[in-house]
Amino acid sequence: MLELIVISKVTDYIYVGNLNAAYNGRTLLIPCTCSPLKHCCFEDINECINASTEKRKRVLVHCRDGFSLAPMCIIQYLMVKQNMRLIAAYELLRAKYPVNIKECHQNVLVSLERQLQNLKKANMKKPYHK
């Protein structure tokens, strides 16, 4: 049986793929294995991605099939670290990679979008002091 390798370049240094891609690449690997997903997992993932990209090293974010959990982790990274909205991050990834995000992962992203937008609104309400 032929094992399919699924991998795509998302940004200059961030790649997304499946488990088979992880066994065939020369990048820092970030396996998405948190279950249930917690925001502390996102912090760890984001820290690893940042450490690699700052050194101009390629990083492969992967999960078993490569179509839901890993893409969700990259989308949340783009939302948190690149200040992208959920739809924009999803569209960027979808244009480069076959995404099929499970409903439970979609719910995590929608919840994160709400949190980020509420935080942004709260920060905008704070008075500016010199």
TrEMBL record:
PROSITE patterns: TYR_PHOSPHATASE_2
Listed InterPro entries: Dual-sp_phosphatase_cat-dom, Prot-tyrosine_phosphatase-like, Tyr_Pase_dom
Residue span(s) of domain Tyrosine specific protein phosphatases: 43-108
Pfam families: DSPc
Highest rank taxon of the organism: Eukaryota
Protein name from the UniProt record: Tyrosine specific protein phosphatases domain-containing protein
Organism: Xiphophorus maculatus (Southern platyfish)
